[in-house]
Amino acid sequence: MKIIFATNNQHKVEEIQAAIGGQLEVIGLSQAGVDIDIPEPHDTLEANASEKSFTIYRLTGHSCFSEDTGLEVDALDGEHGVKSARYAGEGRSFEKNIEKLLEKLGDNPDRKARFRTVISLVWEGKETLFEGVCPGRILTRPEGEGGFGYDPIFVPDGDTRSFARMTLEEKNRYSHRRKAADQLLTYLRQLSGFASSSATQPAPSSGSLPSTSSGTQPAPPISQHPEN
In the structure, what pLDDT confidence band is assigned to residue 16 with cuts at 50, 70 and 90? Predict the structure, then answer.
């Protein structure tokens, strides 16, 4: 079974595919033959995720999903949230984004932050939203060469290493994107009934996001509504 992930970011495709495992083939926009840069004009992660998934659903007629992720920093009143990718300008340079964030934080001892991902699934015209949260803290300087985005300056709660110093498998133990993907996968199983024998172990839960492993009840989607 294949599903379109409404993104041009191959790093995100690989991360979601690793989270889901071999039960479902995730293809990005280029693999689906779609050449489009979808705007993210809204003020919430939920609205931007919906914009992307419905755009691709209307364009292709195929069920698809999208995600929007933001880094929310306590000492900056939740900045930069929905504008994380464009924090230092429309060029989407994460080196400049990191530089600006560290400059604004300075020597502030409050380094608490969280990554938050919202996935929008549009299945046969009906949208369902899922959320994953990874709490952690911001380092004073980048550490590590792996990952992408803000990974070099973010350390998840329960570890001492930045995401950029972890393998993808290690990162998925904490990943906000993994937590949302686990809920997406559980929901797709219920819709399509595809086998779960090859399921990977879900990431540890955070806050109100319970595990989706066998024997527990999956977290309900955060909302459902048909296309307007």
Answer: confident
| pTM for this model (two decimals) | 0.76
Comparing C-alpha atoms, which of 123, 118, 139 is closest to residue 188? 123
The strand ranges marked E within 47-175 are 64-73, 80-81, 112-123, 126-138, 154-156
For tokens 């479902």, the residue is: 24
Indicate the average pLDDT of the chain: 81
> Are the C-beta atoms of residues 172 and 160 closer than 8 Å to each other?
no
Name the active-site residue from 35, 37, 43, 68: 68
Query: From 1.10.150.20, 3.20.20.70, 3.90.950.10, 3.40.50.1820, which CATH number describes the 2-226 domain?
Result: 3.90.950.10
Question: Is 107 one of the catalytic residues?
Answer: no
